[in-house]
Amino acid sequence: MALLFAAMVAVPVMAADSAISGLLQVNLLKYEPYPAEPGQYIDAWFSIANARASDLAEGVSCTFVDNYPFALDSTEQRTLSLGQLQAGYDAIVRYRVRVDDKAVLGNNNIKVSCSSAGYPATQLSATVYVQAHDSVLALNEITAPDVAPGAKTPLVIKVKNMADAQLKDVYLKIDLSSTTTPFAAIGSPTEKRLATVDAGAEESFQYELMAYPNANPGVYKIPLTLTYSDRLGTTYTKTDYATVVVDSPAEIQLNLDSTELYKRPAKGSITLSVVNSGLSDVKALTVTLLPSADYTPLSAEEVYIGALSSDDSNTVDYTIYATNASTGNVQLLVRVSYVNAFNQRRSEDRNVAIPMYDNDQIAAMGLEPIAETNILILLVSLAVGAFIVYRLYKRFNKK
Description:
Layout lengths: L2 E5 L10 E4 L2 E9 L8 E10 L6 E9 L4 E2 L7 E7 L4 E10 L6 E10 L6 E9 L6 E7 L8 E10 L5 E8 L8 E3 L5 E7 L4 E10 L6 E12 L5 E12 L5 E8 L6 E11 L5 E8 L5 E3 L4 E7 L3 E11 L7 E10 L5 E10 L4 H7 L2 H31 L1
Antiparallel strand pairs: 1-8, 2-3, 3-4, 4-8, 5-7, 5-9, 6-8, 9-10, 11-12, 12-16, 13-15, 13-17, 14-16, 17-18, 19-20, 20-24, 21-23, 21-25, 22-24, 25-26
């Protein structure tokens, strides 16, 4: 609310901003806070003095004149009636003035118009200094989904104007020049510009990055340089980092490599192949044969492999006894456990089928147990043949 004070004694003028015409001299005494801030309020005090030595000023009033960036809210009283001012006396009025949030920083003019009966109005245009409290443009949010080698990922960097005034000439540069940063910007330059960011507003810079095909899984920091200016022309620079994760989940394949087990119930040895078909290495790799009613392990259930590079393989051997608990193929329950490129322990359970056959199938395919029987038959046949040849030889010699 605008306030009015009547002074019964002369008050010295404390501001250089003044205007005089007719009977009245109008001065801007002070304003608080100093400096004025965009988007905030100031209290401005004006003195209205009867500058004549003898004339009485009657019907004195003052009106606040909106002049960008200064204005009164609709709830404020714009025109104040002061009544009479005797010669040499003055009055003080106060207005609560709103400063526009897009105010130009620096000196701006605030205006009032004061008049007395029978005389032209005295127009005062006084200087008020406007300065943002802090010209802070914050890196508010940085997002980039994990990316596989050779793949693309969006990089979105959001900035927020934390100041009370508009900021301009906002530049953001991402630095991909280091040989340890395995990314390239796709479809746009590494430096981008925003003309302005309004007070309290949030804007975003968007990039598309491609990870090099030979990029190793890991966490990479991309240097950022943010440069901007306030409306007084002061330039600010800040640096930060965007974090992008290159990740290609390990792909461990488990297959039946060979087997000496063909039917139930029976004992046999089996060999499983362990293949790292992913793009990242693993370490501390362990393969464990889990319990099942389908078989009884006759060898160590857990086999430690250790490190297994991408596109490499190894084997593990087990001896088991296939039970009659079920029919059909023997289903091995196997757990694969390893540490990935980010030192995170991962475990995956797999099923590996060992095909079972009947005797006819075993004979038709010439599997190992039948092959041994065939050799025995061949040896017996050879022995019988040799015996017959021997008897014939003896018979002919007697003749």
